[in-house]
Amino acid sequence: xxxxxxxxxxxxxxxxxxxxxxxxxxxxxxxxxxxxxxxxxxxxxxxxxxxxxxxxxxxxxxxxxxxxxxxxxxxxxxxxxxxxxxxxxxxxxxxxxxxxxxxxxxxxxxxxxxxxxxxxxxxxxxxxxxxxxxxxxxxxxxxxxxxxxxxxxxxxxxxxxxxxxxxxxxxxxxxxxxxxxxxxxxxxxxxxxxxxxxxxxxxxxxxxxxxxxxxxxxxxxxxxxxxxxxxxxxxxxxxxxxxxxxxxxxxxxxxxxxxxxxxxxxxxxxxxxxxxxxxxxxxxxxxxxxxxxxxxxxxxxxxxxxxxxxxxxxxxxxxxxxxxxxx
Amino acid sequence: xxxxxxxxxxxxxxxxxxxxxxxxxxxxxxxxxxxxxxxxxxxxxxxxxxxxxxxxxxxxxxxxxxxxxxxxxxxxxxxxxxxxxxxxxxxxxxxxxxxxxxxxxxxxxxxxxxxxxxxxxxxxxxxxxxxxxxxxxxxxxxxxxxxxxxxxxxxxxxxxxxxxxxxxxxxxxxxxxxxxxxxxxxxxxxxxxxxxxxxxxxxxxxxxxxxxxxxxxxxxxxxxxxxxxxxxxxxxxxxxxxxxxxxxxxxxxxxxxxxxxxxxxxxxxxxxxxxxxxxxxxxxxxxxxxxxxxxxxxxxxxxxxxxxxxxxxxxxxxxxxxxxxxxxxxxxxxxxxxxxxxxxxxxxxxxxxxxxxxxxxxxxxxxxxxxxxxxxxxxxxxxxxxxxxxxxxxxxxxxxxxxxxxxxxxxxxxxxxxxxxxxxxxxxxxxxxxxxxxxxxxxxxxxxxxxxxxxxxxxxxxxxxxxxxxxxxxxxxxxxxxxxxxxxxxxxxxxxxxxxxxxxxxxxxxxxxxxxxxxxxxxxxx
Lengths: 327, 526
Ligand SMILES: Nc1ncnc2c1ncn2[C@@H]1O[C@H](COP(=O)(O)OP(=O)(O)OP(=O)(O)O)[C@@H](O)[C@H]1O
Ligand SMILES: [Mg+2]
Fold this sequence. Notes:
The complex is a heterodimer. By secondary structure, chain A is mainly α. Chain A has 14 helices and four strands. Helix content of chain B is 33%, strand content 25%. In chain B, a hairpin with a 2-residue loop joins strand 21 and strand 22. In chain B, helix 13 crosses helix 14 and helix 13 runs parallel beside helix 15. The chains are: A mainly alpha, B alpha/beta.
């Protein structure tokens, strides 16, 4: 019984990992050519930006917050990079750091509103979402293509790996982001304070933890992650357009939740988030191989998964509550 | 503490060597507060209060529920900002604006109620914010090792890597204390740290406090247990209705006077016996209400038999972790029993969830008010009416007038200190929140009322009132199961007692056996 409840927290993480393996195995059995390293690596290549932004979202959900502005921020970053590169003719060495700063500041301001003015994060980031989308159209209502040679290079360059497979630079960035997030969450005070805030903000405050700073920094970090995702996305799309990444915030939230991080905060795993994204990737790939289904079936499958997972989380919590005060 | 006397409920080792002749070295004040005022809407929580703490003393802060003790502590530690007055630490004016700052200045605090994160591990709760590091990250091994040592010093042997939420309130309270003790500080503040602890744990805590006092720490200690005050403190500051009554040497202030000064009037509540003595009418009145045969749940409590009769108060006594709460939970259907049966008025019934139990006339007032009882964002009236409304069904709305009438009656009866019926319960003092919960279950007039630590954190005067009330309810024919870690309280209230040890029922006492010495021996098994 003890071992069972010990694992409660990780149940979703295990299920997600197993489900991913099962779906991958299913594809391998059904379709020839599915079972290859490259199919797996392609999931990373196609979803690198989603991985990065979902990591930022994991932090936000751990403290029990939410951020629905990230899709719009990604669009804004794409548009702004395109504009600065193509119209102002600035170099990537200037544009990329500037974009990261813009994203971080955007997050910082939202964080300040959320913490110091005590406004619901949903409301603040809803406003942020409208603002960022609006700004896209202020810059341009049309698609702005990126012709910068560095961006072109990043879009097409493939890092060769053994066995004839390859990855893109974006994948490396995503993997680095995962490693960094894992370290921050498990081995730094900042990360642990995030879990404490998610557990009970009032208690965290009374324990003498820097609640205000941590909360604001988490939204800043999330802004930074969405800017990084925006840059990776612009490598992928090579354009800025006001309708880029519409609804991406929901994909990110779904990935995080499927990865075992509940919306109530206090619990969360980056590795779970990675598998949350990859599950979406594997469903996409399955549908691609199947060939006749519309790609919207991915969304339907995700909707189904989300339902299952949220119900599962509720059941676990309910069971835990009825078990309390053992010991 | 010596192992043999580990089970005394009342006698704490008396260490203080205070003598008016001045054997004690001249002490310097370490923390002072002058003219502190704090107002909340409709409440003057503190009015012009002075407070002085010396290095190397244990200073008790006393007062009835809602007197302003916790508020003063919150002002001293930067949780609340005072409306007037100033605070000095070692003669330097300080104005901490957050508990973090106060901690950095050298004030370590255990606030009332457990303020820890239940999702984090026990070890992390002790060390978060000041984790030992290795290479460039948190050293988890070291955290777990040191936590084990710290808890072992308090005679607590638990798995420190488990989430804190899996343990009982008492253990959570111990963890909170361990955390505060380990923060090297100049001032240690403990706001009702002992409310859910047993004598053994309390003694251990006192031992540590004495050691820290010797090292020159100033300790502020809040409690409603008069015995503990005399066992450990050097001086007492008394507050009443947010105003300072005075500062006294503990040795020079008799108990009766202490209580009188807290209440603002003479107190004789504990003198008279409240148990009815008319033994003649027992036979017909004491019809059995609930009978339990071999009820048990593996890992929680071993199978036990129990009978509760109408018109009697059955006490459940035992040490911390002996299964008192588990027994109540299993009867009320919160925990699933895996063996045994329950009979109500001779009829076999199945109680698999609390709703079943409520339908059969049971009510359960849980021990952990913060997580299982109070709804912070509802008003006093709404919190009191809740269970009654639920019992009547949501379709039969109790008219507002009637609600106010009932709520008002119990606010007066239990002396709930509130700015009004519409005050949010979250704004009440800890003891007053407890009274609200109690009122909620009392008004449902159940046939069997299970009270788990009903007087935790409640002041002496009201405690006596509540005990009287419980006896009065029993006299009207209600059956009551009374769980308390305070032995003298159980002795005063109970007609019979079931004694628990190591999660099983070992004995039942009644009549003449309900006496301190006998109970203690039964618990200890000698
Ligand atoms: N945030 C708040 N808003 C309104 N009133 C408050 C607030 N906090 C405390 N009070 C009021 O201030 C008074 C003093 O409360 P405090 O918590 O200091 O009492 P206490 O002496 O600690 O009592 P107890 O022994 O029950 O813990 C109470 O009447 C309480 O209702
Ligand atoms: Mg208090």
